[in-house]
Each structure stands twice: as C-alpha cells, then as structure tokens.
Amino acid sequence: MPTVDRWLVVGLGNPGPEYAGNRHNAGFMVLDELAARAGGRFKVHRSRAEVLEGRLAGAPAVLAKPLSFMNLSGGPVKALADFYKVDPARVIAVHDELDIPYGALRAKLGGGDNGHNGLKSITKSLATKDYLRVRFGIGRPPGRMDAAAYVLRDFATAERKDLPFLVDRAADMVESLITSGLEPTQNTFHAGDLNVSGPPR
C-alpha cells in the first residue's frame, strides 16, 4: 500500500560537475534549494540517486537527484517510488522546458513529454503520465542552434542574473503543490512570470 502522506520530489539533470550549470540541470538546481530548506544533505541511495529524506512544507518528503543520465531517469524514479511506497500522483518532477520562455514557470499534471528525454523515461518506467511536473522555462535556442546542444550549455550571463530568483520561485512552487494542490498553485504562480524574455514568441 502506498504511504498516503509522503511525497517524492525529483529534480532532473545530468550528474557530474561538467553539467552543473547547464540549462538541462535546472531541476537539480531547484532540488539543491529544496534540500537547503529541508535542512539536510543528499546521500547516495541504492536506487542510483542522491536522496534526502525529510520534511518539506510540513509534509514528509523524499528529495532525489537521479545519478543516471537524463534519458535514463525513469529507472531511479521507479525504484524510489517502489522503495518509499509513493503513488505516482504524489511524484513531482522538476525539469527544464524548451517550450516555455525563460522567466516563466508552469505546473501541470500529466500530459506529454514535449520531447524531453527525462520525462519520456519517467513516464515509461512509472507506466503512467499522471505525475506532477514543475516546468522551468528555458526558452528556445537562438537562430538555428540545435536544441540538444542548447540544453547542454550553461545559462547565459544575462540569464544568470535572474537564475537565483527563478530557482527560489520554482522551489516555492513545489512547496505550494504539496500544501495547496495543483489549481491554487497554477493560479498563484502562472500569473507571476518574470519579464526577462522580451515580447512573446
């Protein structure tokens, strides 16, 4: 039986210092902020993830950063969900999102993966799309730059100015999902985009 009140919050990224500042690692950045709020440190778990067990926004939570590469994230997430007996409906995946402009954050339940290999892997491993997502907008690559190359580049200098604020706000969003649910979180956070990306594209 799933543990009714426990949450599993997973940040998506690639392990290793060479990837730490990449746009694709926005999920890891948010999880580091949440770990600081939970007052603990990540430890390596047998599920092939760094894990922190604690309380987040007053609720029991497991914070996790898979140690697999992005396209294999589903294995560790499924292993953690099974180990901690967490239902997929109480899994929150925090990830970068090309289809949302930089400065915007979105929460959703279910839906497609928009070509995101981490989400694709999680959906396959959990055998359901019905888990929560916090989508960290990174915008589309400039000109003809390949999207795969773009996500593996560090945030630009201009973007880094606002990055701490956005990471903090995404962490707030995760806590709001836990305390208030999806619709109130959407109502609160979708209206508060940071205007850093110029006119709509």
UniProtKB/TrEMBL annotation:
Subcellular location: Cytoplasm
Top EC group: hydrolase
Signal sequence, renumbered to the chain: none
InterPro entries: Pept_tRNA_hydro, Pept_tRNA_hydro_CS, Pept_tRNA_hydro_sf
GO biological process: protein quality control for misfolded or incompletely synthesized proteins; rescue of stalled ribosome
Annotated SUPFAM superfamilies: Peptidyl-tRNA hydrolase-like
A single GO cellular-component term on record: cytoplasm
Swiss-Prot/TrEMBL catalytic activity: an N-acyl-L-alpha-aminoacyl-tRNA + H2O = an N-acyl-L-amino acid + a tRNA + H(+)
EC number: 3.1.1.29
Site entry (Discriminates between blocked and unblocked aminoacyl-tRNA), positions: 14
Protein family according to the UniProt entry: Belongs to the PTH family.
Biological role stated in the UniProt entry: Hydrolyzes ribosome-free peptidyl-tRNAs (with 1 or more amino acids incorporated), which drop off the ribosome during protein synthesis, or as a result of ribosome stalling.
HAMAP family: Pept_tRNA_hydro_bact
Protein name per its UniProtKB record: Peptidyl-tRNA hydrolase
